[in-house]
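Progress against Task 2.4 (sequence-to-structure conversion) is shown through the following example record, which the project officer requested during the mid-term review.
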Amino acid sequence: MLDPTALISQFGLLAVFGTAAIEGDAAVVTAGVLVQRGLLPFWPVVLAGMAGGWISDLLIYHLARRFRSHPRTIRGVEAARKWRFFNMFVAYPMLLALAIRFMPGVRTAGPVALATATPITTLRYTVLTGIAAFIWSFILVHVGQQTGHIISRLFKGFDIPEYVEIGVPVVIVLILTGFALRKWRRRALEPRVSDLLCPIKLAPVPPTKAQDDNDDFQKTAGLAALNGPGYPHPP
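Structure tokens generated for the chain above:
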């Protein structure tokens, strides 16, 4: 029979790296729970989470630069424009590069926008996203550790199998993190209040000569109908 703890100890860091590149937050927080249980070491988990998130950001950025005219890239830019803070962050691309890792709703649209709509250089983007990925991974692993401590206290005194003691905190963390991320993504993609309160106003179109002649004809015809047969009718 396979031992779950042995599998986690053997393949855990590789799993953290892969899931951090694909999913991100939930995977790294869950890894923090496993760190609290003593199944994985703290700093290697932080570095594995950082590497996964960082490579994901770099891959999206370079693909967007290479295929900036591709329909999928264009759709990515259009999706980024729906983000409520898009215009503010595009004006400050270095700030956006630092913030992408902490904004789950724009982790694809953000790098695409930076690669296609801003003048940020590849070197700056690489350095800034690397710093952000390290801070992001460190914070989430720490959050996972603290969450694991709280959940372990709730189950203190219960005689339950070890795999249940490990699995229950992991499931709880996954559910809570998934709920929080879903709520964040919805909020990030909401239209801005200013757009709702101040709709676009179209400039009035000046009337053409034909429209002026038609208006004059209608006015003359209306006056003729009101004043009777003695009033001159329009030609």
